[in-house]
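Exercise: predict the fold of this chain.
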Amino acid sequence: DDEIYEAWDAKAKGDVQQKNWEADFAAYEKAYPELAAELSRRLNGELPADFASQAQAYIQQTQEAGGDVASRKASQNAINSLQPLLPELLGGSADLAGSNLTLFKGAKGIEKDADGNYIYYGVREFGMTAIANGIALHGGFIPYVATFLMFMEYARNAVRMGALMKQRVIHVYTHDSIGLGEDGPTHQPVEQLTSLRATPNLRTWRPCDATESASAWVEAIKSESNPSALIFSRQGLPHQARDSEQVANITKGGYVLAKEQGELQAIIIATGSEVGLAMEAYETLSANGVGVRVVSMPCAEIFVEQEANYREAVLPANIRARVAVEAAHVDYWYKFVGLDGKVIGMTTYGESAPASDLYKEFGITTDAVVDAVNSLV
């Protein structure tokens, strides 16, 4: 009915408000040109002019510094370094800030006073993620939110909507596998990585050390129309040696971390905490004369977007002996290893025990990787 349309029609009111805003902003711009330019930059979703160069310098710094560290701690180090370059970065966590390590130097909680840069969302993963979508839609901020990877399940609908709406929201998920240990199978994610990777327009990163963690953060910040899921470990991870080309290739989602000695016979693909296992297997196999390479694949979605010649250089089609290793559900990786390849990972829920015991119990070990490669060559 006409009266319904009239009651809900706010076009005229909105037009007045828009013109008032534009007049106010024009006056503000005249009085404070630098502040107005900064506000416009943020509202337009543009990064600071020097962000790319300073971020790249930080990534290189992490590679040179080395050191073994849990990737959740590497993530916090990245936030501490990047947030001063990006004041519009707006953090938050679902009652797990101390475990997610998402608080940064200078973080100030938003309470009754809106003058802050960190939101304590409470135990409401869906609400938190939906709010972050709204913040991104409004503009002016780049929101990141955090919880355990297992609790992504509570936020699933909002994660999907953010991807559907092409919003720059950064989802930080820690405690990423059976490696979290004694909390048991209710807290140990198995199928969640596959679920995230199967979500269109979402980029899922699972970095293996501080350098990949820094790169993941920078790429998530730069990704204007894709939300990103950054997956981090509770346990410490070994630093990996890289040259400058390998550091640059992290942004391609997958790259050769360890090159074969002699003729290439087999490929090991790994992510996150299992890259360390892959590298140990590489040393054993190479010492026994097997020509094997290790491919680290922190973001498979970006890797498959690369040009065919790059993908072929990393994963040559004629090498059918392929093994993937990840402490998560195995099914996703058959797209890379083929039906004749082998995947070392999970097909059941976890158990409650120390992380080292669980890796042995479920056969996610260096010896298992070595045996799988030997069975294929």
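Check your answer against the key: The chain has a mean pLDDT of 96.
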